[in-house]
Design a protein that fits this description.
By secondary structure, the chain is of the alpha+beta class. It folds into 2 domains: 53 residues, no CATH class; 81 residues, DNA Binding (I), subunit A, CATH 1.10.30. Helices cover 17% and strands 15% of the residues.
């Protein structure tokens, strides 16, 4: 984007640089670099779009990865977070009982709880859902596997939760 002129890259002093100016900055030993044909440039951490209208509206695809992400890779019956190989999908209302393959009827489930529930509804198996399954809104954060790294360069742009959550006293 910066190379095409649709974004500027911000340095530590928050100066907006075009691609050529950014490429002229040297790469320090402690910084990540991107190897180009003729040089190595610093990995940009903060970028500013030159023009921006809105995020594109996208529907979340209904797939295993997105169900696992929505549910935090936790079994929605017992709350455990087993290894990925021990997770499965469960139809809350079984397909044999007319349940559909939808966001509202699929949950992340450990293989133990899935086996225990079998082809029954949760109440029939004396099991409870931790949270009701819903169709999530699309956000870029859902596409990032695991927790994103927080870079020092991002700090001026992040909300300080302590500032908003401190108890106010007389």
């Amino acid at each position: 984007m910066a190379y095409q002129g649709s974004a500027k890259l911000l340095d530590e002093q928050l100066r907006a640089l075009d691609f050529e100016s950014w490429a002229d900055l040297s790469v320090a030993a402690h910084q990540d670099g991107i190897g180009l044909v003729d040089r190595v440039i610093r990995v940009p951490r903060v970028m500013m779009l030159v023009g921006f209208n809105r995020l594109p509206r996208r529907d979340m695809k209904l797939n295993r990865h997105n169900i696992y992400s929505r549910d935090g890779r936790r079994c929605q019956y017992c709350g455990k977070s087993p290894p990925l190989a021990e997770l499965s999908l469960d139809h809350v209302i079984p397909r044999a009982q007319g349940g559909k393959t939808t966001w509202e009827n699929l949950v992340c489930c450990c293989i133990y709880c899935n086996r225990k529930k079998g082809g029954r509804r949760p109440a029939e198996a004396r099991m409870r859902l931790i949270q009701k399954p819903i169709k999530p809104n699309w956000t870029p954060a859902l596409l990032m596997p695991g927790k994103p790294s927080i870079y020092r360069e991002w700090e001026p742009f992040l909300v300080n939760a302590a500032y908003w959550n401190v108890e106010l006293l007389d």
